[in-house]
Specification:
The protein is an alpha/beta fold. The chain is built from 3 helices and 6 strands, in the order E-E-E-H-E-H-E-H-E.
Length: about 140
Amino acid sequence: MEPLIRKATDDTPKIILDKDKNTFSIAERSLPENAFDFYKPVYEWLEQYITQPAEQTELHIKLDYFNTASAKQLGKIFNLLETIKYSLKVVWHYYADDADMLESGKRFARLTGIDFELKEEEPEEDSDDFKIIYE
């Protein structure tokens, strides 16, 4: 099965779906102009994957931000993946100071029958593009 790899842009997340390397992740920002079209190849890849999944699948979600349209697509992805919930774990990464992202992870965990791990991360020191430096 060919991997699905997409580089991040300002508005779309980095996606790695690689069965051979057992690497599954969606990371950075998800604000695509058309979330349905953007996530369609992801959904289609996962539809094929669940027909012959690995013994254990660990999907890492490490989004800094996502919009409502992306949330809907993530929900569809999680609903699809419920068919392999016996061997699936979603690791929902969130920054310690991001209560909204933590709550989003909790909400998805409640709405699905999937094993969710909520993993707190410390923000990278230079990750904030909008830092104000006082002299």
